Amino acid sequence: MLRVEEVQSVEFSSALISKFDEIVSRYPEGRSKSALLPILHEVQAVYGWLSSAAMDKVAEYLNIQPIEVYEVATFYTMFFLKPQGKYVLEVCRTGPCCLVGAEKIMDYIGQKLGVKEGEVTADGLFSYRGVECLAACGYAPVLQIGPEYTFYENLTPESVDQLIENLKNK
Amino acid sequence: MGRKLLLEHINVPGINTFQVYKEKGGYRAVEKALKTMSSDDVVEEVKKSGLRGRGGAGFPTGMKWSFLAKPEGVPRYLVCNADESEPGTFKDRYLMTHIPHALIEGMIVGSYALGANTSYIYVRGEMMPQIRILEKAIAEAKAAGYLGKNILGSGYDLEIYVQPGGGAYICGEETALLESLEGKRGNPRIKPPFPAIAGLYGCPTVVNNVESIAATVPIVNEGGEEYAKIGIGRSTGTKLISASGNINKPGVYEIELGLSVEDFIYSDEYCGGIANGKRLKAVVAGGSSVPILPANLILNLANGDKRLMSYESLSEGGFATGTMLGSGGFVVLDEDQCIVRNTWNFSRFYHHESCGQCSPCREGTGWMEKVLHRLEYGHGKMSDIDLLVDVSKKIEGNTICPLGDAAAWPVASAIRHFRDEFEWHVKEPKLALERNYGLAHYADPIKIAEEV
Amino acid sequence: MSDKIKVTIDGIPVEVEPRTSILNAARQIGGDIVPPAMCYYSKLEGSGGKCRTCLVKVSKGSEKDPRPMPKLVASCRTTVMDGMEVQNITSPEVIEARKGVVEMLLINHPLDCPICDQAGECHLQDLSYEHGAATTRYEFDRRTFDRVDIGDKIQLHMNRCILCYRCVFTADQITNNRVHGVLGRGDHAEISTYIEKAIDNDFSGNVIDVCPVGALTDKTFRFKNRVWFTKPVEAHRDCPTCSGKVTLWYKGEEVLRVTARKDVYGEVEDFICNTCRFDKKSTNDWVIEGPRQVSRQSVINANHYDTLQPLPVIKKNPELMQANKEQFERATKF
């Protein structure tokens, strides 16, 4: 459980707020809570993760209780509740991917980055984690990188090297 | 060559744009429906087509549509289930990536049939690129007058919005999806009431899979009866099959239902045989939830006849010797694959994805995963095998939603058909860590029961 | 009334109002055919359906559509139809499924009844005693959480929680703002406030009463006594906030704890306010009505009052006579 001291305040930019307004307009009157998931994605895309201060701010915007935001954010696996590396390599670890070597790719990424699953590299650039089926079994092994969730298919150690190199130089 | 209804123009450059899609005959169904048919006519055509839900359950789409309650003054909703998360299934991603307008066109036709003026496409959050693709397609369609107010002068208004999920397999269950769309945790609702009576925002709602919605386009274009001529028996039309695993040509294939499983796996038109010259060991035919079958039972029925790619043929023999077409996630395992490990992997998936609302699934999925992990890593006991069967029975049928069944079936079926391999893991724990059990007798011809 | 609906549960017919649930129809009959309920709470809208202990078999759907229902159904959330036939304790399938549910509920539940304040009035204890197996087949570590104080009056012992959601519904429906909820998912789901926060409003204490297990306990009563050593007495006061109708739990002259009055199914009759629950622990605060009737089967009845009755004994059985003599001597020593 978080201690209250860790909570810092957050201000959303006016561009972000107008994005929120557009999202809310998709739903009928009085159903603005529907906007919660899309808004959390927007917030995470800006801050890289969801701090409790940011979630409180979202609750305030949607006029709901903060706990309603926490409940949702902790339910869905895409929302990070802790700071992550700039690039989170999310590798599919479910059956069909494993049939063609996803586990080996995961191990390779761990070795390559020198961190364990969920940890962030010293330069703050990378972290990686196994995720469940990404619905791309025919192009396995696969990984994705947020916030655009760009897809990298048919991974091999070589293509992983290349990818990490490209990201470093970006 | 089987007929292609959904993927006919898949290789046309630019088919993802409105312009090219329209040139290739796109949006004819919208014109036809809105200008010449009543909404009931459209429902009737879909009923006649015999189209069955392509998301996994196989419930007739037309019937689902006709169940929709239509109280005065209450909005109705069509929600597209694009939360494709079933391991082994990636057809909806493919369709949305390459022919997004097929889905948008289907959404317009479907919404018109159901009398919905606002419709949502709930796409799993991981498919952010597809969300952008769909948003662009919607904007194009709107600019061309196929969405918005008074579409094609018919007086019919429609807005379509794309909603991202947040990473939860359970949101593929229709009521969990609706909860999620309402901005809540994806806990499946307790039914009744069914969405047809009280769905999104408590209003009558139909939730359909991407492929089902896209399939209404050729149905409206060609007529339900024409569509029903394709396929076999009650498995009408074409189906997108996501083929993955140890095959030469993994990918999405549109097949006419009724093709033989053997042809699907071995012909060059489809999977092109087992990769690396290996032999077939087992197949999960309809996404990870359906029972796994050994090579001999997936290719043939218990009576020796060829098994076909259809709802009926795949489920022939019940769970004793059959499986299900499910979502069409066709996962092929070669002789080098370990069934225990694969079962453990699937079991971990269901443990990870259980919403935690009802006790048998919340506790049982974790329990099965732990026991399977122990078996896979050489610490299992002979009694674990029966324990797994018993736990799976305690989950199956006793949960709020079908995730409980989906978690139980792969385990129960793996033990039913591959018990030897599980026992070998217990008897030879060290060996099991070093090598796999291999093909064993799983591809041997079936002994045909002599009873009449 | 003519529009009443006839339903048969374990062969016993009963007529109930339309839209009654099977569970409530069974409660109108009473006795052992009433399915157990760990998450359903008649006073909380939307509760039920989750624990799956109340599963029953519908062997006949209704007079109009006599087909049986394909799966066992949660009796708390299934409404009766005219002519419906339900099997509860007469169905081996139901008994087996319920045993499975109890086993599932227990695999991650700690065996800390000896130090749990809920022991003696714990619904999970009763459920396991009546429907469970004596041993467990679960051989792995149980999931554990840290104990948390949510405010100075309530302790959350998440290890014991069975995720019935009752406290969440209570906070939603009885209090004016909910600060706790279910976080996470699957078997890692937990009741929490996420950020360290006190649950503080006039009616928050009711979460203790609705909790079927010892996950939410009253810190003012914590470790003070076993419930079966305390005497429940009904009392009321003129409370500006709530009905003021409570049960006082006495040890000697001292009021150890105040709870709402609970019915035979463990549900409160009226929700009470925190002032009554936590701050009024002196006899002077209350108008005493008299001893609370407690079911004879309840462990809470075991040590009550001074009229300990020796068991009736069949005179011809020397072993029973001896046992009775010993018990009588032991009892009179105290």
UniProtKB/TrEMBL annotation, chain A:
Any matching Pfam family: 2Fe-2S_thioredx
InterPro entries: NuoE-like, NuoE_dom, NuoE_N, Thioredoxin-like_sf
Bound cofactor: record note: Binds 1 [2Fe-2S] cluster.
Binding site for [2Fe-2S] cluster: 92, 97, 133, 137
Keyword list, A-Z: 2Fe-2S, Iron, Iron-sulfur, Metal-binding
Cofactor: [2Fe-2S] cluster
GO MF annotation terms: 2 iron, 2 sulfur cluster binding; metal ion binding; NADH dehydrogenase activity
UniProt keyword Metal-binding present: yes
Family: Belongs to the complex I 24 kDa subunit family.
Annotated protein name in UniProt: NADH-quinone oxidoreductase subunit NuoE
Organism lineage: Bacteria, Pseudomonadati, Bacteroidota, Sphingobacteriia, Sphingobacteriales
From TrEMBL, chain B:
Domain NADH-ubiquinone oxidoreductase 51kDa subunit iron-sulphur binding: 340-385
Organism of this sequence: Pedobacter puniceum
Listed cofactors: FMN; [4Fe-4S] cluster
GO process terms (BP): cellular respiration
Gene3D superfamilies per UniProt: 3.10.20.600, 6.10.250.1450, NADH-ubiquinone oxidoreductase 51kDa subunit (3.40.50.11540), NADH-ubiquinone oxidoreductase 51kDa subunit, iron-sulphur binding domain (1.20.1440.230)
Biological role: NDH-1 shuttles electrons from NADH, via FMN and iron-sulfur (Fe-S) centers, to quinones in the respiratory chain.
Protein name: NADH-quinone oxidoreductase subunit F
Enzyme type, top EC level: translocase
Automatic annotation (TrEMBL), chain C:
Signal peptide, first to last residue: none
Subcellular location: Membrane
Keyword terms: 2Fe-2S, 4Fe-4S, Iron, Iron-sulfur, Membrane, Metal-binding, NAD, Translocase
Source organism: Pedobacter puniceum
Name assigned to this protein: 2Fe-2S iron-sulfur cluster binding domain-containing protein
Keyword Iron-sulfur: yes
InterPro entries the record matches: 2Fe-2S_ferredoxin-like_sf, 2Fe-2S_ferredoxin-type, NADH_UbQ_OxRdtase_ferredoxin, NADH_UbQ_OxRdtase_Gsu_4Fe4S-bd, Prok_molybdopt-oxidoreductase
UniProt record similarity statement: Belongs to the complex I 75 kDa subunit family.
Cofactor field: [2Fe-2S] cluster; [4Fe-4S] cluster
A single Gene Ontology CC term: membrane
GO biological process, any: respiratory electron transport chain
4Fe-4S His(Cys)3-ligated-type domain boundaries: 93-132
UniProt-recorded Gene Ontology molecular function terms: 2 iron, 2 sulfur cluster binding; 4 iron, 4 sulfur cluster binding; metal ion binding; NADH dehydrogenase activity
Domain spans labelled 2Fe-2S ferredoxin-type: 3-92
Annotated Gene3D superfamilies: 3.10.20.740, 3.30.70.20
UniProt-listed CDD domains: fer2
Source domain of life: Bacteria
